């Protein structure tokens, strides 16, 4: 059995725990059935050939599981580094691990004793395994982490919040470079500075940098089409390069200063400004001196809001972990060019039996999958295989990466500061989670549910007279709102009467649950909700960190009509008995606190005005309302700024920019003569004819 897997990402894996102990000294004298990879780590992740040990084992292991099936594979494993996957009977990946010696590592699982409960449970569920041999253990590390990020095996430590970080971009592909917030692939030419901990931190920094260096932040299309300075120039946040309010040479000087400041030469930049301010004052040019004064004030504002700015650390990421109540919190601080660029808290999915060092080591290997690695990484725990991890990160970054656990000095102070934040953040998370668990249990009792809901989905629609109609779905669970599970639905049906809320809700539910049935039907059958029992503790509920794709309860913002439409769709799909639907109708005079609830098989009812469950449901309903309205506004805004040029085939961003630069506005393009269109750079005769005909045929 040979499978092919493709990937373009290289990540770093988690370190194994007790499985790392190599007890077997058997030599692998039979490498039959394996293909040794000789490519680079990146190529290795792109072209994986998996082997199930040997084809003759396929039939003999079909009825085996646990240590027996693992023993069958061990006999033919080589003493080579590589990666292995463990599968259950349904074909789900249970665990991905790497090994310096596949034979020695896998033989540990076959012992059948001395394992933790987590490992013993994983072994019992294993029905088959697959392997790939690599040239080195470093390649195995890279490949293992890449697979963990893609496959998300249940028994691995998982990085659950893995959004890419925002950066500041100073573009380099226009006459006057602009300063922008950037997230994603670095495909645009220019200088990138970051990462920053949040988009808000980037926005605040850019706002101050505009005042300090007067760089433009407008879109290129707006920059090319301006005929007079915009408001930002009037309020002294832009030097106005669009209309030549500043010469290209002077503007280039401002760009150099901004790059120098973001590159860590802030003191030199500030000293230059002080000297220029002093010189202007001596020349009695007080207006120019005031400009330098305001720019200096803006730079001081940035540094005063950065908190810790280390003197001995130029570029580093600082990791600190704290464990409590079955959960772990990892705080990551980012220091670049000697400046603090923010921090972010993570709550990785990990078995409570794992130590802090094991969780932290596993976290780091996945953290740098889609992020650049700094020269120095400071840790609060001494992780296993630290040297190997450093080698793998160095190979991925293309330069030396050092991993340290500082014991004294300023670096130790940075780690301690991160640890304090991790401890306080986890304390708040535990309090919130405990409160959320109690509310979920109270909701189950109030609505007489047969179980405590783990996943609640709330639906709402938003439109203006039927235009730009969207449906919104928000998700709540034991840890509060799960924002990475939110979904929006652009209403597509042309048969729906504009403003028909019932029809829009039917489309949203059909699409949502039609996709769920296709992708997650097995989960509905195997992951039953947790029944209400007496004597459970909040800690036990917190430790149960599984989060299903199927909702246990759906809340509909509407009355009997909307709920009836939803139930009809669920009945047609054959899942009406598997999902509980509850309607929330506005109270008398649409007054908050007097909502009426509709549950199948019961008369409608209200809750006491001060009932905590009522507040809980109101909060979820309001969040769904906020999300739906926000999505609708974004769609409407995009529609409002849509250019007529976007409707013409063959007109991309570059040609659109060239046309606007030549004619100024889309209206002028529409009225342009065919001969003038042909003169625009990048516009062929055929395309010019297409543009000309497009506006004449309307």
From TrEMBL:
GO biological process, one term: nucleotide-excision repair
Compartment(s): Cytoplasm
Region listing for Disordered, in residue ranges: 1-35
Chain intervals with Acidic residues compositional bias: 15-35
Primary location class: cytoplasm
Domain GIY-YIG per the UniProt entry, residue ranges: 79-157
Keywords for this protein: Cytoplasm, DNA damage, DNA excision, DNA repair, Excision nuclease, SOS response
Any Gene Ontology CC annotation: excinuclease repair complex
InterPro entries: GIY-YIG_endonuc (IPR000305), GIY-YIG_endonuc_sf (IPR035901), GIY-YIG_UvrC_Cho (IPR047296), Hlx-hairpin-Hlx_DNA-bd_motif (IPR003583), RuvA_2-like (IPR010994), UVR_dom (IPR001943), UVR_dom_sf (IPR036876), UvrABC_protein_C (IPR050066)
Lineage top rank: taxon: Bacteria
Example of a GO MF term: DNA binding
Record-annotated UvrC family homology region profile domain positions: 318-570
Pfam families reported for this sequence: GIY-YIG, HHH_5, UVR, UvrC_RNaseH, UvrC_RNaseH_dom
Every UVR domain range: 267-302
PANTHER family named among the record's database cross-references: UVRABC SYSTEM PROTEIN C, UVRC/OXIDOREDUCTASE
Subunit structure: Interacts with UvrB in an incision complex.
Function: The UvrABC repair system catalyzes the recognition and processing of DNA lesions. UvrC both incises the 5' and 3' sides of the lesion. The N-terminal half is responsible for the 3' incision and the C-terminal half is responsible for the 5' incision.
NCBIfam families the UniProt entry points to: PRK00558.1-5, uvrC
Family under the similarity heading: Belongs to the UvrC family.
Name of the protein: UvrABC system protein C
């Amino acid at each position: 059995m040979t499978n092919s897997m493709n990937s373009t990402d290289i990540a770093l894996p988690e370190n194994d725990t007790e499985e790392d102990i190599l007890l077997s000294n058997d030599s692998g004298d039979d490498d039959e059935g394996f293909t040794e990879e000789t490519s680079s780590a990146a190529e290795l992740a792109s072209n994986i050939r998996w082997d199930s040990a040997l084809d003759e084992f396929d039939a003999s292991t079909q009825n085996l599981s646990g240590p027996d099936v693992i023993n069958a594979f061990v006999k033919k494993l080589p003493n080579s580094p590589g990666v292995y996957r463990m599968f259950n009977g349904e074909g789900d990946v249970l665990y991905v691990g790497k090994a310096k010696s596949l034979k020695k590592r896998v033989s540990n699982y076959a012992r059948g004793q001395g394992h933790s409960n987590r490992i013993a449970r994983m072994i019992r569920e294993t029905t088959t395994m697959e392997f790939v041999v690599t040239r080195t253990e470093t390649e195995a590390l890279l490949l293992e982490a890449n697979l963990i990020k893609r496959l998300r095996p249940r028994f691995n430590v998982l990085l659950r919040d893995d959004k890419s970080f925002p950066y500041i971009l100073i573009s380099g592909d226009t006459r006057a470079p602009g300063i922008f917030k950037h997230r994603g692939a670095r495909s645009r030419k220019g200088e990138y500075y970051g990462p920053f901990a949040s988009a808000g931190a980037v926005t605040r920094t850019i706002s101050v940098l505009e005042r300090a260096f007067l760089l433009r932040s407008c879109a290129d299309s707006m920059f090319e089409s301006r005929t007079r300075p915009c408001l930002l120039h009037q309020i002294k946040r832009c030097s106005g390069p669009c209309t030549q309010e500043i010469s290209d040479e002077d503007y280039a000087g401002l760009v150099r200063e901004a790059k120098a400041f973001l590159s860590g030469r802030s003191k030199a930049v500030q000293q230059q400004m002080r000297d220029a301010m002093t010189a202007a004052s001596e020349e009695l040019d007080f207006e120019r001196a005031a400009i330098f004064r305001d720019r200096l004030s803006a730079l001081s504002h940035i540094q005063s809001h950065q908190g810790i700015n280390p003197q001995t650390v130029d570029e580093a990421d600082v990791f600190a972990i704290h464990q409590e109540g079955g959960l772990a919190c990892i705080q990551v601080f980012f220091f670049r060019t000697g400046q603090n660029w923010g921090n972010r808290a993570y709550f990785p999915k990990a078995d409570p039996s794992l130590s802090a060092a094991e969780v932290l080591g596993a976290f780091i290997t996945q953290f740098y999958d889609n992020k650049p690695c700094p020269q120095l990484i400071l840790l609060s725990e001494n992780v296993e295989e630290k040297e190997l991890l450093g080698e793998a990160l160095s190979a991925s970054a293309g330069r030396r990466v050092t991993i340290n656990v500082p014991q004294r000095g300023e670096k130790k102070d940075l780690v301690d500061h991160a640890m304090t934040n991790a401890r306080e953040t986890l304390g708040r998370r535990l309090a919130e989670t405990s409160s959320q668990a109690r509310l979920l249990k109270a909701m189950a009792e109030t609505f007489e549910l047969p179980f405590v809901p783990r996943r609640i989905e709330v639906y709402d629609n938003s439109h203006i007279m039927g235009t730009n109609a969207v449906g919104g779905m928000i998700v709540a669970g034991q840890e509060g709102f799960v924002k990475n599970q939110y979904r929006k639905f652009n209403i597509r049906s042309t048969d729906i009467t504009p403003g028909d809320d019932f029809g829009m809700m039917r489309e949203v539910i059909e699409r949502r649950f039609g996709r769920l049935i296709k992708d997650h039907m097995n989960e509905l059958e195997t992951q039953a909700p947790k029944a209400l029992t007496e004597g459970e503790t909040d800690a036990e509920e917190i430790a149960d960190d599984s989060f299903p794709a199927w909702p246990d309860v759906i809340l509909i913002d509407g009355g009997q009509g909307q709920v009836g439409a939803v139930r009809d769709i669920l009945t047609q799909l054959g899942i009406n008995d598997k999902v509980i639907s509850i309607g929330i109708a506005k109270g008398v005079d649409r007054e908050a606190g007097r909502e009426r609830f509709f549950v199948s098989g019961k008369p409608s009812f209200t809750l006491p005005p001060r009932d905590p469950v009522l507040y809980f449901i109101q909060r979820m309903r309001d969040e769904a309302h906020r999300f739906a309205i926000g999505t609708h506004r974004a769609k409407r805004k995009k529609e409002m700024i849509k250019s007529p040029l976007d409707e013409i085939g063959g007109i991309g961003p570059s040609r659109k920019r060239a046309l606007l630069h030549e004619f100024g506005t889309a209206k002028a393009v529409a009225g342009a003569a065919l001969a003038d269109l042909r003169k625009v750079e990048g516009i062929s005769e055929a395309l010019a004819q297409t543009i000309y005909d497009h506006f004449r045929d309307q």
